[in-house]
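Batch 3, record 17
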Amino acid sequence: MRMAELSRASGVPVPTIKYYLRAGLLPPGERTSPNQARYGEAHVRRLRLVRALVEVGKLPIATVAEVLAALDEPASPHHVLGVAQRAVTTPRAVAEGETRERVAQRLREVAERRGWTIKPDEPVTEAVLGVLATVNELGHTHLLDQLDRYAELADLVAESDVDTVVGLPSVEETVEQAVIGMVLGEPLFAALRRLAQLNASAHRFGDPECDPECETSGS
Amino acid sequence: MRMAELSRASGVPVPTIKYYLRAGLLPPGERTSPNQARYGEAHVRRLRLVRALVEVGKLPIATVAEVLAALDEPASPHHVLGVAQRAVTTPRAVAEGETRERVAQRLREVAERRGWTIKPDEPVTEAVLGVLATVNELGHTHLLDQLDRYAELADLVAESDVDTVVGLPSVEETVEQAVIGMVLGEPLFAALRRLAQLNASAHRFGDPECDPECETSGS
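Prediction for the assembled complex:
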């Protein structure tokens, strides 16, 4: 198909497609004349993925390029997941000094109980330590007390994450779906958790704004 | 204490404190002369909270102001949580047309099974629908198949979230800790889930980069 059809099929405007081509996020089409090229279903698929990573995943273009490069490398799903995870993880706070020692020790204990391997200096490890240090500084000790429970639930969520990509017919599909799940699974679970929080807090603290019928589920 | 001491105690630079005062994120100190004011422990506490919401929660200043206004209103924890949740939730994608119908129906079924009340037009509902629509468009049906399981786990996480603020001595403390938990609990759980994913994917797909000792937990 021509560029205009590719745009219609993917829902991505032509100038954006040209930008993605220049940025290397989309492989060039098959050249049919000096200024025309032909694109296929693989381009439609890739464009949808790029749009999801950029618009919903909120990833910077350079990060999307890194993630796509990992996808296009022939490697094990575990390897691709690791590359993608490092690319998409930006620690939000830095844990330093004595506080760092304290929260790192707490994380080591939790990891030991869960059988997790914690690699030091990984962005994801820094991300956990940074948030823990901030929570610690704010004196929200009850959140830290629940760390084992959160880690246990994170294990169950991660099991489901892996379940969504097990048994797919090819390595390519497995890694693509794994990356989609990693990037979109985060806002999805965060939004579900907020729905659940509203529900749980209405149950525990009561909902004075709510008339009886709003207690009915699914209304 | 004076502004300089407030800065040392909170770790927030003086120009930033002045900016927060002008933006109304911090109540003015007690004026002791035309150009001097005295600040107390409440200011230190509030500054640490503002910093966490801005730097770790990545909330825009206007959103932080809304959340703090809700905190300072005398109201039930459930009410404050609702205001804070609406303030911090920005749907990342819009679900439209036929896809919207399909994913909304799916969400209604899940909510029914979980006993959740889904209020239409709430940002959090739109957030769930937007991600589901994107996942649907990408054809990641396995993720949608796991929606009930994710909702079930979201309920368990939300129970733990509520547990962290139950039994606190005052309403003020309860709502402050609830907001901290809501804003910081998200990056914390996301990072724990990624640690768990790496672990789960190494188990399921093997980790060819890893020598035997890196299988040991807590190393």
